[in-house]
Amino acid sequence: MTTKQTLLRSLPAVDTLLAIDPLPEYIETHSYDVVLTAVRDVLDTTRRDILSESRDTVHHDELVEQVMMEIEQTFAPTLRGVINATGVIVHTNLGRALLSESAQQAIVDVAGNYNTLEFNLADGKRGSRLVHATQLLRDLTGADAAIVVNNNASALIMILSALAKDHEVVISRGQLVEIGGGFRIPAIMKQSGAHLVEVGTTNRTRIADFADAVTDQTAMFLRVHSSNFKQIGFTEQPTLEQLAHTASEHGVLAVDDLGSGTLIDTTRFGLEYEPTIQDSINAGFDVICFSGDKLLGGPQAGIIIGKQKVMDKLKKHPLARALRVDKLTYAALTATLEHYRRDEALSHIPVWQMISQNLNQISNRAKHWAEQVGGRVIQGESTVGGGSLPGTTLPTALLALDTSSPDDFMAKLRSAEMPIIARVSAGQVLFDPRTVLLSQEDTLLSTLHRLYS
Ligand SMILES: *Cc1c(COP(=O)(O)O)cnc(C)c1O
Predict the structure, then answer these.
(1) What is the DSSP letter of 269?
(2) Between the chain's N and C termini, which has fewer beta carbons within 10 Å?
(3) CATH number of the domain located at residue range(s) 101-344 in this protein
(4) From the CB of 257, is ligand 1 less than 6 Å away?
(5) Which atom of ligand 1 is nearest to the CA of 300?
(6) Distance between Cα 189 and ligand 1 center (Å)
């Protein structure tokens, strides 16, 4: 009781605290108001803590320390770099695909210079931004035309709005999926003004189900790749060829939301088969859409490719303007696609470098880490992530650290100057070299060395 009063009385006045080093310097760099607010907050909290008896000392340096922390926290950027030691390659929460060096450089070049975003150098007249990346996409996929929009979710909304508004879209009950982040196919349909016509059953849909559903109101057959889940057992879906062929027989469009979309055959790396963009083009689909920052390994974007006539219609839709991408996206996407054209995707695009890394290289890195910081090397699995290849993994080697409290240790790792994101399994904290860049290795090891000893 008396201690409480003594403690309360020992709290410094606002001005006293403001004058203690280094707070005067903080006033210089951050403004008087910012520091004043932080000082008041810290004093209020301390007063409350004393009254609730959760605090029984008052040291001035401690209070100053708290004020500094509060100011740092208020001004810390919310978006910052981290080290991804989770082994999830296309990690949606950690920014998905990393850009290749030349894609990064392309962004820098375009960001700091005026550029030809909508300018034709040949005649000095106004040009169209829709030309960028188009030729490369046509060459690489064999499609007639291409449009790039904000992301694949918006690509699908645009396709449905422009080509199926007030009309029926036929889709298998096995593909009425939720991709994540509230992106659900039935909701997207509704938003676009298209009428959903479900056919087949959850596990089995045949091509006859599609054919039987056609009315004079039908605009398209839609296939949605079941990116993030897998059906096993007694299942059936029509082939791509059947879908495209039957659509054209009935005079409706065949549209494929590929989700990840890959130009490279994933079975080369012991992964399951992820449908390729070329498959859907060869099967005769009219329109295909996929993400720029999943297995393609580029910037966030929704890429729409397809047959000339339909693509012309899409280009004229008001959403094409609303969902257009900026110069930075075009710069990074073009540079990424260049790697495929030069047949150097595996060696230059981070997503593919990580997928194609061999187990030996990874084991050696994990062993080196264990020598530097302690712990053991164990076998484990990396995943591709990003809603692609559900349930398939790549064998990897992990550094495993035992700590008394894995959660506390993970929190310390996250609060490092360069935050480290690891994972916990069976009470051990695990670090997968596959997703840790070589350029980050020294930082990772010195942080681990400091925190784990
Ligand atoms: C990931 C995914 C989307 C959404 O793509 P974003 O680029 O994240 O907008 C849409 N459809 C499928 C099938 C997907 O896998």
Answers:
(1) G
(2) N
(3) 3.40.640.10
(4) yes
(5) 7
(6) 14
